[in-house]
């Protein structure tokens, strides 16, 4: 008989917070963003995208792993937001997968939060 794998903790963890600023709504994500954690991200990002009056900023600078499920949520939030959408990618962990998928055609990729929040 082969023993089954039963972890005591989830394999992937993510923290999602929404911050409402005068000129933007910021969805900050920290941790691993994969098929296990994307639903928590989606539950915060899509309502924030639909309800933001101005710019939506998705801050992925503290994401250590970005899988296709997380990219799908970024793109869905980008499509749902009525205004401009900027994604803070920080490092190659998040920038490279978003560039490879062509996400930059739907959302604007930024290196820092300050850049994403800067006036046009």
From TrEMBL:
Residues 14-120 form the STAS domain. SUPFAM superfamilies: SpoIIaa-like. CDD domains: STAS_anti-anti-sigma_factors. Coiled coil: none annotated. It comes from the Bacteria. InterPro entries: Anti-sigma_ant (IPR003658), STAS_dom (IPR002645), STAS_dom_sf (IPR036513). Belongs to the anti-sigma-factor antagonist family. This is Anti-sigma factor antagonist. It comes from Amycolatopsis viridis.
């Amino acid at each position: 008989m082969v023993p089954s794998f039963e972890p005591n903790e989830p394999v992937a963890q993510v923290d999602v917070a929404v911050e409402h600023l005068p000129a933007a709504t910021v969805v900050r994500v920290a941790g691993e963003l994969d098929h296990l954690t994307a639903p928590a991200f989606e539950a915060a990002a899509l309502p924030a995208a639909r309800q933001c009056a101005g710019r939506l900023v998705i801050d992925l600078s503290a994401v250590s792993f970005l899988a296709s499920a997380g990219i799908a949520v970024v793109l869905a939030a980008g499509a749902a937001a009525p205004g401009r959408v900027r994604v803070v990618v920080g490092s190659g962990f998040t920038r490279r997968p978003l560039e490879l998928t062509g996400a930059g055609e739907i959302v604007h990729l930024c290196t820092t939060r300050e850049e994403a929040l800067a006036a046009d």
